[in-house]
Amino acid sequence: MNWINWCDVLLQKAMDNIPLTNWENFNVDLYQSFVFGGRWKLYLEGLGNTLLIAVMALVLGVILGMLVAVIRTLHDQRRAGARPNVLLSAINWIAKLYTTVIRGTPMMVQLLIMAMVIFKSSRNLVAVSALAFGINSGAYVAEIVRGGLMSVDGGQMEAGRSLGLNYFQTMRFIIIPQAIKNILPALGNELISLLKETSIVGIIGLRDLTKSAQLITTKVFGGFMPLFGVALVYLGIVLILSWLLGKLERRMRQSDRR
Predict the structure, then answer these.
(1) CB neighbours (10 Å) of residue 133?
(2) Mean pLDDT, residues 219-239 taken together
(3) What is the pLDDT of residues 20-37, one digit of tens each?
(4) Is the dihedral of CA 106, 107, 112, 117 positive or negative?
(5) Which residues, including other chains, have CB under 8 Å from residue 252's CB and lie 6 or more apart?
(6) Considering the entire predicted model, what is its pTM?
(7) Which of 27, 69, 121, 233 is an S-S bond match for 145, by CB 3.0 to 4.6 Å?
(8) Ramachandran region, residue 38 (left: φ > 0; alpha: ψ -120 to 50; beta: rest)
Protein backbone atom coordinates (compact mmCIF):
# COMPACT_ATOMS: atom_id res chain seq x y z
CA MET A 1 0.00 0.00 0.00
CA ASN A 2 1.49 3.32 -1.07
CA TRP A 3 1.31 6.56 0.91
CA ILE A 4 -1.70 7.97 -0.96
CA ASN A 5 -3.79 4.81 -0.52
CA TRP A 6 -2.78 4.67 3.14
CA CYS A 7 -3.87 8.27 3.63
CA ASP A 8 -7.19 7.51 1.91
CA VAL A 9 -7.81 4.78 4.47
CA LEU A 10 -6.83 7.08 7.34
CA LEU A 11 -9.07 9.84 6.00
CA GLN A 12 -12.01 7.47 5.90
CA LYS A 13 -11.29 6.44 9.49
CA ALA A 14 -11.21 10.08 10.53
CA MET A 15 -14.55 10.70 8.83
CA ASP A 16 -15.95 7.68 10.72
CA ASN A 17 -14.72 9.24 13.99
CA ILE A 18 -12.17 6.49 14.54
CA PRO A 19 -9.31 7.81 16.71
CA LEU A 20 -5.97 8.26 14.97
CA THR A 21 -2.45 8.60 16.34
CA ASN A 22 -0.63 11.93 16.13
CA TRP A 23 1.50 10.62 13.26
CA GLU A 24 -1.58 9.44 11.38
CA ASN A 25 -3.29 12.80 11.93
CA PHE A 26 -0.20 14.57 10.59
CA ASN A 27 -0.27 12.50 7.41
CA VAL A 28 -4.00 13.03 6.98
CA ASP A 29 -3.57 16.81 7.31
CA LEU A 30 -0.69 16.77 4.84
CA TYR A 31 -2.66 14.64 2.40
CA GLN A 32 -5.80 16.75 2.64
CA SER A 33 -3.96 20.03 2.36
CA PHE A 34 -1.77 19.29 -0.66
CA VAL A 35 -2.74 16.08 -2.44
CA PHE A 36 -6.43 15.19 -2.05
CA GLY A 37 -8.50 16.23 -5.07
CA GLY A 38 -5.47 17.69 -6.83
CA ARG A 39 -5.35 20.60 -4.41
CA TRP A 40 -1.68 21.19 -5.20
CA LYS A 41 -2.89 22.68 -8.49
CA LEU A 42 -4.59 25.50 -6.57
CA TYR A 43 -1.27 26.36 -4.93
CA LEU A 44 0.51 26.37 -8.29
CA GLU A 45 -2.12 28.61 -9.82
CA GLY A 46 -1.93 30.95 -6.85
CA LEU A 47 1.87 30.98 -6.93
CA GLY A 48 1.78 31.83 -10.62
CA ASN A 49 -0.50 34.81 -9.97
CA THR A 50 1.66 35.94 -7.05
CA LEU A 51 4.89 35.88 -9.07
CA LEU A 52 3.25 37.46 -12.13
CA ILE A 53 1.87 40.35 -10.09
CA ALA A 54 5.21 40.86 -8.31
CA VAL A 55 7.23 40.89 -11.56
CA MET A 56 4.82 43.19 -13.42
CA ALA A 57 4.61 45.55 -10.44
CA LEU A 58 8.39 45.58 -10.06
CA VAL A 59 8.95 46.53 -13.70
CA LEU A 60 6.34 49.29 -13.51
CA GLY A 61 7.63 50.46 -10.13
CA VAL A 62 11.24 50.71 -11.30
CA ILE A 63 10.32 52.60 -14.47
CA LEU A 64 8.00 54.98 -12.63
CA GLY A 65 10.40 55.36 -9.72
CA MET A 66 13.37 56.13 -11.95
CA LEU A 67 11.37 58.75 -13.85
CA VAL A 68 10.18 60.46 -10.67
CA ALA A 69 13.65 60.28 -9.13
CA VAL A 70 15.32 61.89 -12.14
CA ILE A 71 12.73 64.69 -12.22
CA ARG A 72 13.10 65.44 -8.53
CA THR A 73 16.89 65.23 -8.69
CA LEU A 74 16.96 67.57 -11.70
CA HIS A 75 14.85 70.05 -9.75
CA ASP A 76 16.92 69.78 -6.56
CA GLN A 77 20.25 70.11 -8.37
CA ARG A 78 19.47 73.30 -10.23
CA ARG A 79 22.29 75.77 -10.03
CA ALA A 80 21.93 78.59 -7.54
CA GLY A 81 20.75 81.75 -9.22
CA ALA A 82 19.51 79.92 -12.33
CA ARG A 83 16.34 81.17 -13.98
CA PRO A 84 13.25 79.42 -12.50
CA ASN A 85 11.80 76.71 -14.73
CA VAL A 86 8.03 76.85 -14.30
CA LEU A 87 7.39 73.58 -16.13
CA LEU A 88 10.02 71.68 -14.14
CA SER A 89 8.71 73.10 -10.88
CA ALA A 90 5.17 72.03 -11.74
CA ILE A 91 6.24 68.51 -12.69
CA ASN A 92 8.36 68.26 -9.55
CA TRP A 93 5.37 69.34 -7.44
CA ILE A 94 3.25 66.60 -9.04
CA ALA A 95 5.99 64.02 -8.43
CA LYS A 96 6.35 65.11 -4.81
CA LEU A 97 2.58 64.95 -4.32
CA TYR A 98 2.53 61.45 -5.82
CA THR A 99 5.20 60.12 -3.47
CA THR A 100 3.61 61.80 -0.45
CA VAL A 101 0.12 60.45 -1.10
CA ILE A 102 1.17 56.93 -2.05
CA ARG A 103 3.61 56.53 0.84
CA GLY A 104 1.14 58.07 3.27
CA THR A 105 -1.82 55.75 2.58
CA PRO A 106 -2.17 51.98 3.19
CA MET A 107 -1.50 49.60 0.32
CA MET A 108 -4.76 47.77 0.97
CA VAL A 109 -6.77 50.98 0.59
CA GLN A 110 -4.99 51.78 -2.68
CA LEU A 111 -5.71 48.28 -3.96
CA LEU A 112 -9.42 48.55 -3.06
CA ILE A 113 -9.69 51.94 -4.74
CA MET A 114 -8.02 50.61 -7.87
CA ALA A 115 -10.16 47.45 -8.05
CA MET A 116 -13.52 48.67 -6.78
CA VAL A 117 -13.59 52.31 -7.92
CA ILE A 118 -11.28 53.07 -10.82
CA PHE A 119 -11.40 49.66 -12.56
CA LYS A 120 -14.57 48.26 -10.99
CA SER A 121 -15.78 46.91 -14.35
CA SER A 122 -12.51 45.14 -15.17
CA ARG A 123 -12.26 41.37 -14.81
CA ASN A 124 -8.50 41.27 -15.25
CA LEU A 125 -7.68 41.35 -11.54
CA VAL A 126 -4.06 40.38 -12.16
CA ALA A 127 -3.45 43.49 -14.27
CA VAL A 128 -5.36 45.70 -11.84
CA SER A 129 -3.36 44.34 -8.91
CA ALA A 130 -0.06 44.72 -10.75
CA LEU A 131 -0.94 48.33 -11.59
CA ALA A 132 -1.84 49.12 -7.97
CA PHE A 133 1.31 47.53 -6.59
CA GLY A 134 3.46 49.06 -9.33
CA ILE A 135 2.23 52.57 -8.56
CA ASN A 136 2.78 51.96 -4.85
CA SER A 137 6.25 50.52 -5.39
CA GLY A 138 7.18 53.38 -7.72
CA ALA A 139 6.83 55.90 -4.89
CA TYR A 140 9.27 53.98 -2.68
CA VAL A 141 11.65 53.23 -5.54
CA ALA A 142 11.66 56.95 -6.41
CA GLU A 143 12.91 57.89 -2.97
CA ILE A 144 15.46 55.07 -2.98
CA VAL A 145 16.82 56.08 -6.39
CA ARG A 146 16.73 59.80 -5.57
CA GLY A 147 18.79 59.17 -2.46
CA GLY A 148 21.29 57.18 -4.51
CA LEU A 149 21.54 59.86 -7.19
CA MET A 150 22.03 62.61 -4.63
CA SER A 151 24.79 60.57 -2.95
CA VAL A 152 26.96 60.74 -6.08
CA ASP A 153 29.43 63.61 -5.91
CA GLY A 154 28.18 66.70 -7.70
CA GLY A 155 31.48 66.99 -9.54
CA GLN A 156 30.51 63.94 -11.59
CA MET A 157 27.65 65.85 -13.18
CA GLU A 158 29.89 68.82 -13.94
CA ALA A 159 32.49 66.51 -15.45
CA GLY A 160 29.92 64.94 -17.74
CA ARG A 161 28.56 68.28 -18.84
CA SER A 162 32.09 69.50 -19.54
CA LEU A 163 32.53 66.54 -21.91
CA GLY A 164 29.61 67.75 -23.99
CA LEU A 165 26.97 65.42 -22.57
CA ASN A 166 23.53 66.77 -21.82
CA TYR A 167 21.83 66.21 -18.46
CA PHE A 168 20.11 62.94 -19.35
CA GLN A 169 23.20 61.50 -21.08
CA THR A 170 25.27 62.33 -18.00
CA MET A 171 22.69 60.65 -15.77
CA ARG A 172 22.58 57.57 -18.00
CA PHE A 173 26.29 57.02 -18.54
CA ILE A 174 27.91 58.48 -15.41
CA ILE A 175 25.57 59.10 -12.47
CA ILE A 176 23.14 56.17 -12.59
CA PRO A 177 25.83 53.44 -12.94
CA GLN A 178 27.52 54.76 -9.79
CA ALA A 179 24.23 55.19 -7.93
CA ILE A 180 23.09 51.62 -8.66
CA LYS A 181 25.81 50.24 -6.41
CA ASN A 182 24.51 52.36 -3.55
CA ILE A 183 20.80 51.64 -4.03
CA LEU A 184 20.96 47.94 -4.90
CA PRO A 185 20.48 46.67 -1.31
CA ALA A 186 17.48 48.96 -0.78
CA LEU A 187 15.97 47.95 -4.13
CA GLY A 188 16.41 44.31 -3.17
CA ASN A 189 14.53 44.91 0.06
CA GLU A 190 11.78 46.66 -1.88
CA LEU A 191 11.45 43.63 -4.18
CA ILE A 192 11.14 41.28 -1.21
CA SER A 193 8.61 43.55 0.49
CA LEU A 194 6.63 43.82 -2.74
CA LEU A 195 6.48 40.04 -3.09
CA LYS A 196 5.16 39.62 0.45
CA GLU A 197 2.69 42.50 0.14
CA THR A 198 0.96 40.79 -2.79
CA SER A 199 -0.54 38.38 -0.24
CA ILE A 200 -3.39 40.87 0.29
CA VAL A 201 -4.78 40.62 -3.25
CA GLY A 202 -7.24 37.99 -2.06
CA ILE A 203 -9.31 40.84 -0.62
CA ILE A 204 -10.46 41.74 -4.14
CA GLY A 205 -11.23 38.11 -5.02
CA LEU A 206 -8.00 37.21 -6.83
CA ARG A 207 -6.71 33.72 -6.11
CA ASP A 208 -3.08 34.14 -5.21
CA LEU A 209 -0.93 31.84 -3.09
CA THR A 210 -2.36 33.04 0.23
CA LYS A 211 -5.95 33.02 -1.03
CA SER A 212 -5.50 29.43 -2.25
CA ALA A 213 -4.41 28.40 1.24
CA GLN A 214 -7.40 30.18 2.76
CA LEU A 215 -9.78 28.35 0.43
CA ILE A 216 -8.26 25.00 1.32
CA THR A 217 -8.43 25.68 5.08
CA THR A 218 -12.23 25.71 4.74
CA LYS A 219 -12.15 22.16 3.37
CA VAL A 220 -9.80 20.45 5.83
CA PHE A 221 -9.97 19.66 9.54
CA GLY A 222 -7.47 22.39 10.45
CA GLY A 223 -5.82 25.41 8.87
CA PHE A 224 -2.29 24.89 10.16
CA MET A 225 -0.93 22.76 7.34
CA PRO A 226 -2.05 24.91 4.33
CA LEU A 227 -0.95 28.18 5.94
CA PHE A 228 2.31 26.71 7.20
CA GLY A 229 3.02 25.34 3.73
CA VAL A 230 2.38 28.73 2.12
CA ALA A 231 4.63 30.41 4.68
CA LEU A 232 7.41 27.99 3.73
CA VAL A 233 6.93 28.80 0.04
CA TYR A 234 7.22 32.54 0.71
CA LEU A 235 10.25 31.94 2.91
CA GLY A 236 11.90 29.82 0.22
CA ILE A 237 11.36 32.50 -2.44
CA VAL A 238 12.69 35.23 -0.15
CA LEU A 239 15.78 33.18 0.71
CA ILE A 240 16.48 32.58 -2.99
CA LEU A 241 16.07 36.29 -3.80
CA SER A 242 18.28 37.26 -0.86
CA TRP A 243 20.97 34.83 -2.02
CA LEU A 244 20.86 36.16 -5.58
CA LEU A 245 21.00 39.77 -4.41
CA GLY A 246 23.89 39.02 -2.06
CA LYS A 247 25.78 37.32 -4.88
CA LEU A 248 25.18 40.32 -7.15
CA GLU A 249 26.37 42.74 -4.46
CA ARG A 250 29.57 40.72 -3.91
CA ARG A 251 30.27 40.68 -7.63
CA MET A 252 29.82 44.45 -7.85
CA ARG A 253 32.14 44.98 -4.89
CA GLN A 254 34.76 42.78 -6.56
CA SER A 255 34.53 44.90 -9.72
CA ASP A 256 35.23 48.01 -7.61
CA ARG A 257 38.51 46.54 -6.35
CA ARG A 258 39.82 45.93 -9.84
Answers:
(1) 27
(2) 85
(3) 788 888 887 887 888 887
(4) positive
(5) 181, 184
(6) 0.84
(7) 69
(8) left
